[in-house]
Amino acid sequence: MRVLGVDPGLTRCGLGVVDGGLGRSVTCVAVDVVRTPAEAELSQRLLRIADAVEEWLDFHRPDVVAVERVFSQHNVRTVMGTAQAGGVVALCAARRDLPVAFHTPSEVKAAITGSGRADKAQVTTMVTRVLRLARKPSPADAADALALGICHLWREPMRARLAEAEARAAELARTHRARLAAAARRKRETGATS
């Protein structure tokens, strides 16, 4: 499976493509950061991000796009920019009928380092090791994009199995309720005729 990981942001938007193999083997296909100038109009910054993401989608042909889920930060302006960039990425993927998975920063950190409270340096170090890169991806947005892709590859099989188990349990519950209702009807009908 090929994943495009995106660490959304207006000033720097990290993009990383990883391929998953058997087990937990992962390889880096490409990584980069899209930069937009702070003085540019918001619409132009979002357009630059959209254009870059569309180029990556066309060139790398991922099976899924993994985006960092916006979380509460103290700086509302930063949250808004991150959310807007993430929305543009989701829209680009939707236009190609690609699934989009959102992962929280703590999910990504836990998947990569084993701790949901890891700092950026720890995430970058583990991404470098997992992907067997000659040097650390820089800036941190690039490493975070790769981490999102790795997180999705490692977490998605478990999430899919859980969703499948939940669907089976819901179907069993529906069947059980239907049997109980049918038994109650038969009991009422039998009681009314005797």
From TrEMBL:
<feature type="active site">
    <location>
        <position position="68"/>
    </location>
</feature>
<feature type="binding site">
    <location>
        <position position="7"/>
    </location>
    <ligand>
        <name>Mg(2+) 1</name>
    </ligand>
</feature>
<dbReference type="GO" id="GO:0000287">
    <property type="term" value="F:magnesium ion binding"/>
</dbReference>
<comment type="similarity">
    <text>Belongs to the RuvC family.</text>
</comment>
<comment type="function">
    <text>The RuvA-RuvB-RuvC complex processes Holliday junction (HJ) DNA during genetic recombination and DNA repair. Endonuclease that resolves HJ intermediates. Cleaves cruciform DNA by making single-stranded nicks across the HJ at symmetrical positions within the homologous arms, yielding a 5'-phosphate and a 3'-hydroxyl group; requires a central core of homology in the junction. The consensus cleavage sequence is 5'-(A/T)TT(C/G)-3'. Cleavage occurs on the 3'-side of the TT dinucleotide at the point of strand exchange.</text>
</comment>
<dbReference type="GO" id="GO:0005737">
    <property type="term" value="C:cytoplasm"/>
</dbReference>
<dbReference type="InterPro" id="IPR012337">
    <property type="entry name" value="RNaseH-like_sf"/>
</dbReference>
<keyword id="KW-0540">Nuclease</keyword>
<dbReference type="InterPro" id="IPR002176">
    <property type="entry name" value="X-over_junc_endoDNase_RuvC"/>
</dbReference>
<keyword id="KW-0460">Magnesium</keyword>
<protein>
    <recommendedName>
        <fullName>Crossover junction endodeoxyribonuclease RuvC</fullName>
        <ecNumber>3.1.21.10</ecNumber>
    </recommendedName>
</protein>
<feature type="active site">
    <location>
        <position position="141"/>
    </location>
</feature>
<dbReference type="GO" id="GO:0006310">
    <property type="term" value="P:DNA recombination"/>
</dbReference>
<feature type="active site">
    <location>
        <position position="7"/>
    </location>
</feature>
<dbReference type="GO" id="GO:0048476">
    <property type="term" value="C:Holliday junction resolvase complex"/>
</dbReference>
<feature type="binding site">
    <location>
        <position position="68"/>
    </location>
    <ligand>
        <name>Mg(2+) 2</name>
    </ligand>
</feature>
<keyword id="KW-0963">Cytoplasm</keyword>
<keyword id="KW-0233">DNA recombination</keyword>
<dbReference type="GO" id="GO:0008821">
    <property type="term" value="F:crossover junction DNA endonuclease activity"/>
</dbReference>
<keyword id="KW-0479">Metal-binding</keyword>
<dbReference type="GO" id="GO:0006281">
    <property type="term" value="P:DNA repair"/>
</dbReference>
<feature type="binding site">
    <location>
        <position position="141"/>
    </location>
    <ligand>
        <name>Mg(2+) 1</name>
    </ligand>
</feature>
<keyword id="KW-0255">Endonuclease</keyword>
<keyword id="KW-0378">Hydrolase</keyword>
<keyword id="KW-0234">DNA repair</keyword>
<keyword id="KW-0238">DNA-binding</keyword>
<keyword id="KW-0227">DNA damage</keyword>
<comment type="subunit">
    <text>Homodimer which binds Holliday junction (HJ) DNA. The HJ becomes 2-fold symmetrical on binding to RuvC with unstacked arms; it has a different conformation from HJ DNA in complex with RuvA. In the full resolvosome a probable DNA-RuvA(4)-RuvB(12)-RuvC(2) complex forms which resolves the HJ.</text>
</comment>
<dbReference type="Pfam" id="PF02075">
    <property type="entry name" value="RuvC"/>
</dbReference>
<dbReference type="InterPro" id="IPR036397">
    <property type="entry name" value="RNaseH_sf"/>
</dbReference>
<dbReference type="GO" id="GO:0003677">
    <property type="term" value="F:DNA binding"/>
</dbReference>
